[in-house]
């Protein structure tokens, strides 16, 4: 494997075992726990000036803090997305500043590209021929795109309710697609059955590969630089499995360790009321979620009833002094439409849960008037224009 100088290997978040990344490719060989990439921070010399002098051209500009070298990465220059000022929203929320990190400007229209860039690079370095995952839609599309670029076969399992665009684009990228009746749980079952029959398939499932949350931590690096090194008061993230939230919190911890920032931004998990296991566990003071028996939300990416990394997500919320909030589908769609109308930005329904969540947090008095709030727009609205438009239809518009 061609790794970066500081990349030290993988550490199990459960048993603490450490493993060579050449040999351990997915879950912990000892206990089956989640593996997390680790680095020798002493050999990384990064300061604000060095970073600021680099072109803002791709998430791979943080190569020292990623496992693989930019020159060997499977990349389409994902990341380096804009941080857009939203003055109308700031007025609504009664805070000094609201900015939206617009992940819709990624190659396949969502933040999933960051995770897949690193995970498919790892697959390629491990000499995989085939990659596989189950997804609500966006991750499957991203995986098919990056696998195609790396000349790997991709096997994507999607629930019937994933958006038309993601299904169409898995085909367009040359992926082998299986559409499963039911929801994400059924798609995961079909994927696991298929995996049991194909032991040469390389899983790209979240927190099964150690590399998807690793790619997503770059969202945090970027937004701090874009805020000219100001640590925001709150980062509101639309949470399903919590991959991006765990990644961003890790990124903040690393930058504090490197002396690039002093404080951790408060991370907030925004979920849809119809599937909010993280919010429930946070409010109950528990360290792990209880699975939601009947999940039901229009936010497909957030309909994750049994998020395996909930202990990591809950720890990130508590360690950063953040919080958790759930809003109804109707409020989520209203927020997507308000942002599109007032700020011009197009948010996917799943992403808009972060906007409606921020609204709700503001109403609860969670923010002070002088605060800076970052909202993650994890995916572009035009991938699900039909869902947004039909909400207007329901209102007679
Ligand atoms: C647009 C969008 N936002 C948010 C999420 C949830 O991401 P995470 O698993 O990091 O919580 C997804 C996942 O599918 C998504 O597609
Ligand atoms: Zn372990």
Automatic annotation (TrEMBL):
Keywords: Lyase, Pyridoxal phosphate. Residues 74-379 form the Tryptophan synthase beta chain-like PALP domain. CDD domains: Thr-synth_1. GO terms for molecular function: threonine synthase activity. Its cofactor is pyridoxal 5'-phosphate. Pfam families: PALP. Its EC number is 4.2.3.1. This is Threonine synthase. It comes from Natribaculum luteum. The lineage of its organism: Archaea, Methanobacteriati, Methanobacteriota, Stenosarchaea group, Halobacteria.
């Amino acid at each position: 494997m061609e790794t970066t100088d500081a990349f030290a290997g993988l550490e199990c978040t459960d048993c603490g075992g450490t493993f060579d990344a050449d040999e351990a490719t997915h879950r912990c060989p000892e206990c089956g726990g989640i593996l997390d990439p680790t680095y020798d921070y002493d050999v990384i010399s990064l300061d604000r000036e060095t970073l600021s002098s680099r072109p803002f051209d791709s998430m791979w500009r943080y190569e020292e803090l990623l496992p693989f070298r930019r020159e060997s990465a499977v990349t389409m220059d994902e990341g380096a997305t804009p941080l857009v000022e939203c003055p109308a929203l700031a007025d609504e929320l009664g805070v000094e500043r609201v900015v939206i990190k617009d992940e819709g400007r990624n190659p396949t229209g969502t933040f999933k590209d960051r995770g897949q860039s690193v995970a498919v690079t790892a697959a390629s370095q491990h000499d995989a021929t085939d990659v596989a995952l189950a997804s609500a839609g966006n991750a499957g599309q991203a995986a098919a795109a990056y696998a195609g670029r790396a000349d790997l076969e991709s096997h994507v399992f999607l629930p019937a309710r994933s958006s038309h665009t993601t299904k169409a684009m898995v085909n367009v990228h040359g992926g082998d697609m299986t559409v499963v009746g039911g929801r994400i749980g059924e798609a995961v079952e079909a994927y696991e059955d298929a995996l049991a029959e194909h032991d040469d398939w390389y899983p790209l499932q979240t927190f099964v590969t150690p590399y998807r949350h690793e790619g997503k931590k770059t969202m945090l690096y970027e937004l701090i630089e874009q805020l000219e090194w100001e640590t925001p008061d709150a980062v509101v993230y639309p949470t399903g499995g919590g991959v991006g939230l765990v990644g961003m919190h890790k990124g903040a911890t690393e930058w504090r360790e490197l002396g690039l920032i002093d404080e951790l931004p408060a991370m907030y998990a925004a979920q849809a009321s119809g599937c909010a296991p993280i919010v429930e566990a946070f409010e109950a003071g528990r360290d792990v979620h209880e699975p939601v028996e009947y999940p039901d939300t229009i936010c497909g990416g957030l309909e994750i009833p049994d998020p395996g990394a909930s202990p990591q997500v809950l720890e990130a919320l508590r360690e950063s002094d953040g919080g958790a909030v759930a809003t109804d589908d109707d409020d989520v769609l209203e927020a997507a439409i308000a942002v599109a109308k007032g700020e011009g930005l197009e948010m996917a329904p799943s992403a808009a849960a972060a906007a409606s969540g921020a609204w709700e947090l503001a109403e609860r008095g969670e923010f002070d008037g002088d605060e800076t709030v970052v909202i993650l727009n994890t995916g572009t609205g035009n991938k699900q224009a039909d869902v947004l438009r039909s909400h207007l239809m329901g209102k007679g518009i």
